[in-house]
Amino acid sequence: MSLYVEPVVEATDTALPALEAVDVFRIFRTGEAETVALRGLDLDVAAGSMVAILGPSGCGKSTFLHLAAGLDQPSAGEVRAFGRPLGRLAEPELARYRARDMAIVFQSRNLLGHLTAVENVALQLGLAGVDDAEAKARAALASFGLGDRSATRAASLSGGEQQRAAIAACAARTARLVLCDEPTGELDTANEARVIEALQLLQMEHGATVVIVTHSTRVADVCDRVVLMRDGRVA
Ligand code: ADP
Q1: For residue 79, is it within any domain?
Q2: Atom 22, ligand 1: residue with shortest CA distance
Q3: Ligand 1 centre and the CA of 60: distance in Å?
Q4: What CATH number did the domain enclosing 215 receive?
Q5: pTM over cut 0.85
Q6: Residue 165's closest CA among 130, 121, 126?
């Protein structure tokens, strides 16, 4: 059985911004309490660019990434990826978008805890239509210093190792849109440099658009653009 799924994004979509947020609100309601995580966010991310999103904790950065990944819906407004309003895609199309067009390096949700590192990466590659997924997964893990951790269950890897495994999967898949939430948050300086280099390679060699929520000035320094968020919108 092939896991291959066709990409949602057409070749002709490349002139459009990779990501657009248009007057986006996201309101979380828990009982009586209401949190406005995003309040009128407007943001364009040019295709092929590398953008850092900075801002104080709680200003809505992760909420925006979840919307951009098609994992959540805005309460109002619209998020578009390559011109397509994610809120109006049917579920199969949205599933194809997640498997094929974009990759995430989040603080959680990257890996399935009961599968080994190599099984996790190979699964992502298989869904994205990459041939010879297991061999490529092994090579990608080795290039991120995780060769001897390939057979370890993801749940037993450290936070930093899980993030490196997630980035290895992005690098081997060459997704067109890479969404990262603090991808270097738990890494030492050497591994941070390796991750920065991998993200730059995705942008420069594969034309990926890379959006990185970060507090790291080293990461922000290599980006084409730095967006500062505050109180649920661009400051
Ligand atoms: P940041 O990534 O900038 O630290 P977040 O986007 O994680 O901020 O959160 C923005 C605000 O939304 C915070 O006040 C947070 O507590 C709240 N929030 C985020 N997700 C949820 C949720 N699922 N339910 C309730 N509140 C949430």
Answers
A1: yes
A2: 28
A3: 6
A4: 3.40.50.300
A5: yes
A6: 121
Tens of pLDDT, residues 105-124: 887 667 999 999 999 999 99
108: Cβ below 6 Å to ligand 1? no
Regarding the beta carbon of 35 and ligand 1, being less than 6 Å apart is answered: yes
The number of residues making up the chain comes to 235
Q: Can you tell me which atom of ligand 1 is nearest the CA of 64? A: 6
Q: Does residue 12 lie in a domain region?
A: no
pLDDT tens figures, 179-193: 999 988 877 888 888
Distance 61 CA to ligand 1 centre (A): 8
Residue with tokens 């578009």: 80
Work out the burial of residue 220: count CB atoms within 10 Å of its CB; fewer than 13 is exposed, 13-18 middle, 19 or more buried: middle
User: Does residue 226 belong to any structural domain of this protein?
Assistant: yes
8 Å CB contact between 207 and 48: yes
Q: Does residue 37 line the site of ligand 1, with CB under 6 A? A: yes
Flag whether 5 is in a domain. no
State which residues form the domain around 55. Answer: 19-234
